[in-house]
Amino acid sequence: MPKFVFDAHRLIGPVPFDDLPADPRPEMDRLGIDRACVTHTLSLYSDPREGNDALLRLDDPRLVPVPVVVPGVPGASAPSAPAEVLDWGAPMIRLCPERHRFDLTGPVALRWLAELDLPVAVDLDETSPAQLRTLTERLPGLRVLLLNPGYRRLRALAELMAGAPGVWVEIGTVNTQRGVEWLAERFGAGRLVFGTGAPVADDCGPRFLLDHLDLEPADVELIAAGSLGRLL
Amino acid sequence: MTGDRPQNRAATRGPGEGAAARRPEERAAATRPLLESPVLDAHGHVGTWPDFLIPDPTAEGLVATMDRVGVTAMGISHLLAVGPDAERGNRLAMETAARFPGRFGVWQVHNPHHRTPLVTDGVWGVKLHPDVHQCPLDDPRYEPVWRLGLPVLAHGQTGSPWSDPALFAAVAARHPDVPLLMGHAGLWPYGFDRAARLADGHPNLHLEVCGSRITGRWIARLAAAIGAERVLFGSDACFLDLRTGYGRVALAPLAEPERALIRGGNLARLLGPRLLAPRLAAPAPDRSPHPRRDLP
Questions:
Q1: Domain count, chain A
Q2: Domain range annotation of chain B
Q3: Residues of A in Cβ contact (< 8 Å) with B31
Q4: How far does the CA of residue A223 sit from the closest CA of chain B (Å)?
Q5: CATH code that applies to domain B38-280
Q6: Where is the Amidohydrolase-related domain (chain A) (predicted)?
Q7: pLDDT tens-digit readout, A20-49
Q8: What whole-number distance in Å separates Cα of residue B122 and Cα of residue A152?
Q9: Residue A179 maps to which CATH number?
């Protein structure tokens, strides 16, 4: 039973395709989740700037802001320059190369990420293992938190983790039988991070899984919060 | 679905009414195995599947996990049976159930193309997978299954030409005496509401809630929509992780009486004495010349 639970991946705000709680805190309370990295839904489903503004107005130490950054040439980016991102003081940023139609391994994104030197959260559906391998080869110091890796690409995920030590993996969707233990045995619990993607994705199952992992307590503590703490 | 039910009645309950709590000792109590009533997993498998790696496809692994979280018994079909060889897969499932008395019931797979022989004793019922077998649920080739009268668990997938929830409603109307479990409750979140509406008018049609896209919140919504007595816990383990599947039910925002129905009470009611049948079953030995690489 972990002492402290830090959800690396939650959303705050409304979504267009369902009636879900806009505020994650009541459900965090109910499920025993102490802190969460949050991205505003407006940044994903509307305007990244507007979502980031709303996110950065939050003043709750339980909610760690993960704003969305859109690297681009002048006039196509959000915000307008990397320096603005650094002014936010956020410990991690989120990139959506598929949704926002930019090249994750193109020269502009590489320049922005080199200048920012911040951990980057990206959904596997927004990229590919090959693209992430290229990204981490071009920026060897970059720390990447891979969101929603799913359970069907465990082989490709393992190959990526083996070749890219700067990649951490969110476990919420690693839900084939003993998939989390399989990754922990190969790459260590220090590369695995508790995260849910709630409320769009499920938080009940991953939260229960966290309490029932067949791992040493120290490894469970890493997955529950320690690995994310190190990543950030 | 009845029009006067609030859409999200269960999901809006206060924090104190859920299964989990904030303090560590309370969390431990909340997620400790719930042994006061049987926990029955309506949808399980053993064996491997070609699409992806399953780190632990064994019955031994499932039993260990069942013991870890407090699942009493699981209904299984062998994934070989869902795939190309239903007869041999069914024999392997029966052998598995016999090796772990009381822990596994068998959903015997019927492949309509192969006209898989069916039995009435020693099984929980029949498993259909219209999508893998590419035969729609309302196809006349399934008639031997409906004539058997046993509970039927079928893969359900919104928008699929083989297993859309509308096909379940049609079959449930045609065979009102056959308990029919819609696997995955239609699978895709955008179809859950419709699946509940389609099931609402057919008392023999039940929603089984395993899947990678469903949430604890959706389970509570489905229970609010058609009544908790029509919603059944399933995990899809070993295809999926049993702990994640059971956790959705264990920690869903449900009142405890509703949770007890979903996590086992409903399936026990549907199966009746059949629930204990695997204890008595004497499986035919697997005489296949093919090596059993998918079971220890």
A1: 1
A2: 38-280
A3: 208, 211-212
A4: 15
A5: 3.20.20.140
A6: 16-223
A7: 999 999 999 999 999 999 999 999 999 999
A8: 33
A9: 3.20.20.140
